[in-house]
Specification:
pyruvate-formate lyase- activating enzyme; three-stranded parallel β-sheet; 21% strand; binds iron/sulfur cluster; OB fold (Dihydrolipoamide Acetyltransferase, E2P); 18 strands; alpha/beta; single chain
């Protein structure tokens, strides 16, 4: 979500003649779009603020001028003006997005008080009235994030998101359609629908009769993208408790939707899942996986896993590993628990020793690597249509491609192919990277 919102912010700023600086030294304004979901992400922001504070001091001593530092995003929401003590000049959280436009206008006027053009710039249309940016397109990227809702009503006991992103707000279908049309005009090939919990999308909220829920939105998106450059759609994140039969039907109903789902499980023990307030059991999760795999042949799954939750016993930890063995995720985002102040779990007894948490996480990562390798190994010899995303970072003569199942494949090719679909035979696995060769069909 932060990546999408940063891309949107960049686009809006460029429309108002703010250009990207080559370095912090050359910048008039430094924007930090912060994340609160993990303690490490916050520590990184504090590190950046300390760095920019020192840089500002140095630049001011040398030139009499220094860049403004503006912190936005979840951390700004959580800590507000306290960030000023750490070196920020301006702070604006997610709940007061309209303030971002005012801040930018003020900085703009301050930076270039002599320029009459500044007076004419219009910051009024920065967001739609629902607080979503109008477009999240990133120049030249054949994939685009497309937020469809934000916020979360679930209050998982370890999670800070509902406190910093607020309650669920769904974006109007007409605005989603408009952004899809814009993305198609930019030759985008794949869209990734975004939300903290996309399955609970519903518009309008309240008692209105004609509502669009998530499966209905998927059907609309399939129709809106027909005949356009957009040939693939995915979504993140899905909450297992809200994954309906109608959603499965919508996925089956259109080739637009990729055979890959990110389905956050977090844990394999029913006691821990209940303490996390996840709203499903190990059995119901596995049953959902079974139904999904039956309905969508070739489906791959990825997930989020959290170990070291307060009170997690060795047996409960083992249940994560057995669940992973049963599902065989293609990849996982794996973490150990960190206290987030203000959440329900922060008050729970039974904190797990740091060394134990690290050891358990290492076992999970090792098992995931084995599963990833097995799954990719099984794919060798098969033929796949892939989307070329761009030149490989490691070798300028190779291109990086993505399959429908969210596997990355490297093959020989030119960067000019970026944004096209090509056919590959999957030939080799080096480490956990697939290599392929282009074929006619
Ligand atoms: S579903 Fe749970 S983990 Fe996900 S954002 Fe909401 S509260 Fe956080």
């Amino acid at each position: 979500m932060n990546m999408a919102e940063s891309a949107a912010l960049k686009q809006e700023l460029e429309a108002l003649f703010w250009l990207e600086a080559g370095s912090a030294q050359e910048a008039g304004l430094i924007i930090i779009n912060s994340c609160s979901v993990r303690a490490t992400a916050e520590q990184r922001v504090f590190g950046r603020l300390a760095h920019y504070k020192a840089l500002k001091k140095k630049l001011f001593a040398e030139t009499g001028k220094a860049p403004f530092v503006f912190v936005t995003g979840c951390m700004a929401e959580r800590l507000g003006e306290k960030l000023i003590e750490h070196g920020a000049d301006y702070v604006s959280g997610a709940s007061e997005k309209q303030k971002i436009a005012l801040i930018l206008k003020e900085v703009s006027d301050n930076l270039d008080a002599q320029n009459p053009l500044q007076k004419q710039l219009n910051y009024d249309n920065f967001f739609s009235k629902d607080g979503f940016f109008n477009s999240h397109y990133e120049e030249g990227n054949p994939r685009a994030y497309l937020p469809i809702m934000r916020g979360c009503n679930n209050f998982c006991s370890y999670c800070i998101v509902p406190y910093v992103r607020g309650r669920e707000v769904s974006r109007p279908p007409c605005d989603i359609k408009k952004e899809i049309e814009f993305l198609a005009s930019k030759q985008v090939r794949e869209i990734i629908l975004l939300g903290q919990n996309v399955n609970s999308y519903i518009y309008p909220s309240g008692a209105a009769k004609d509502k669009t829920d998530f499966p209905a939105l998927l059907n609309k998106i399939a129709a809106w993208t027909e005949g356009t450059t957009i040939k693939r759609a995915r979504f993140i994140s899905s909450h297992p408790k809200d994954f309906s039969e109608r959603t499965i039907e919508a996925l089956r109903g259109s080739p637009l939707f990729c055979r890959h789902l990110h389905l956050c499980v977090q844990h394999g023990s029913n006691r821990v899942l209940a303490a996390m307030n996840r709203g499903y059991t190990r059995e119901s999760y596995l049953e959902l996986v079974r139904r999904l795999k039956d309905a969508l042949p070739g489906l791959t799954l990825s997930t989020d896993i959290l170990t070291g939750f307060p009170g997690e016993t060795e047996e409960e930890f083992e249940e994560i590993l057995t669940l992973m063995d049963e599902v065989k995720f293609l990849y996982s985002f794996m973490y150990h628990y960190n206290v987030r102040e203000g959440t329900a779990a922060a008050a729970l007894p039974g904190r797990i020793d740091e060394a134990v948490k690290r050891e358990r996480l290492a076992k999970i990562i090792a098992l995931q690597k084995t599963h990833t390798k097995q799954l990719l190994q099984n794919r060798l010899g098969s033929f796949e249509e892939v989307l070329v995303e761009g030149i490989s970072k490691k070798n300028p003569l190779e291109i990086l491609c993505r399959t429908e199942r969210d596997e990355m494949v490297v093959c020989a090719g030119a960067g000019a192919l970026a944004g096209s679909f090509i056919n590959l035979k999957l030939l080799e696995l080096r480490g956990n990277t697939l290599f392929g060769t282009a074929v006619e069909h």
